[in-house]
Amino acid sequence: GSLAGGATTEPPGDWGDFPRDDLEGPYSPPANPDPLAGVEMFKVGRADGWTGEVGKIVPVSLAVKVVDVDGWPVEGAEVTFLSLRGGGSLVDGDDYEHPTLTVTTNSLGIARARFRLGKHTSVEPFYRRRPGDEHATQVLMHLVEAVAASAQGPLVIDEPFQLFASPGAPVVLLRTDTNETELDHCRAGTWVDTITVAAEDQYGNPVSNVHVHFSVGEPTRYAGCTVSLCRSSSECLPRMRRRMHLHLLEEVTSANNHRSSAASLCEVAALDPRERG
Questions:
Q1: What are the tens digits of pLDDT across the range 4-48?
Q2: Strands 97-98 and 51-53
Q3: Which of 24, 50, 196, 274 is deepest in the core (most CB within 10 A)?
Q4: Where are the alpha helices (DSSP H) in 148-272?
Q5: 160-197 tens-digit pLDDT
Q6: pLDDT tens digits for 70-118?
Q7: C-alpha span between 101 and 141 (Å, rounded)
């Protein structure tokens, strides 16, 4: 008979350690069994330079390879990964998180460690502007070092791993200029205030390039009084109050690629010109 239909497979970069270890180096030379025989260690895989979302585990492991003087892989070498900057953590096989984690190399001379990105971009801020973005985005930069034990002393990689964490989806709008705007004794059409708001994700990180829609509701009569502007309550004049509605739009720029919404309200009060004497 013949085979009909289709089949789907995950890309090799998304495989787990098995069967990746068996298939990754089918023609690799035999491993050196001396765990201290290493003379060089270097980064392998796709984790270096990875950009993910704050608080998430990077889907590809940090990986280094230890080789001996002949370039053969060293099996059993102890490699310690250290999270130096950014507030991220290394995740062990039981899903516990640590600032440092020691693992051993496999038969290919490779040691791997999972990494969870930090939550707050203000810890180690780095700014990026992608094509099409109007504004730069504050992201979190991580540095992760790797050190291996050897007979000739510690082995280190040429430079630490760099990983970046972008803010998550915007979930809240915060007014940053003031809580309330009031202006008395002004003419209709007079500029009152500039409303400034910030979009933030679940961890309070600023989210750039988000479309915010401003709309103003119908005026309603307000009987409040700003005492500092009146010598007595009898001198207070009626005012009209409007509610300003601020919404995160469903459509945002490609830089953050989020689809979420939130709303916030602020009020602008002004003297009703019809009540002037």
A1: 666 777 766 555 555 555 566 667 789 999 999 999 999 999 999
A2: unpaired
A3: 50
A4: none
A5: 999 999 999 998 888 887 656 555 555 666 676 777 88
A6: 999 999 999 999 999 999 999 999 999 999 999 999 999 999 999 999 9
A7: 19
> Quick one: tokens of 267?
């009020």
Tokens of 245: 């509605």
Among residues 47, 43, 138, 143, which one has the least CA distance to residue 87?
143
CA–CA gap between residue 63 and residue 112 (Å, rounded)? 4
Q: pTM, whole model, 2 decimals?
A: 0.73
What Cα–Cα distance (Å) separates residue 136 from each residue in 41, 70, 84, 100, 274? 35, 47, 25, 32, 46
Nearest CA-CA partner of 105 in 129, 79, 83: 79
Structure-block tokens of residue 235: 């001198």
Cα separation, 83 vs 95, in Å, equals 16
d(CA 177, CA 197): 8
Of 224, 235, 233, whose CA–CA distance to 277 is shortest? Answer: 235
**C-alpha to C-alpha distance for 251 and 210, rounded to whole angstroms:** 8
What span, in angstroms and rounded, lies between the C-alpha atoms of 137 and 73?
Answer: 41
Per-chain mean pLDDT for the chain: 79
Of 113, 112, 116, the closest CA to residue 52 belongs to 116
C-alpha closest to that of 266 among 243, 250, 249: 243
DSSP, collapsed to helix, strand or coil, labels residue 20 as: helix
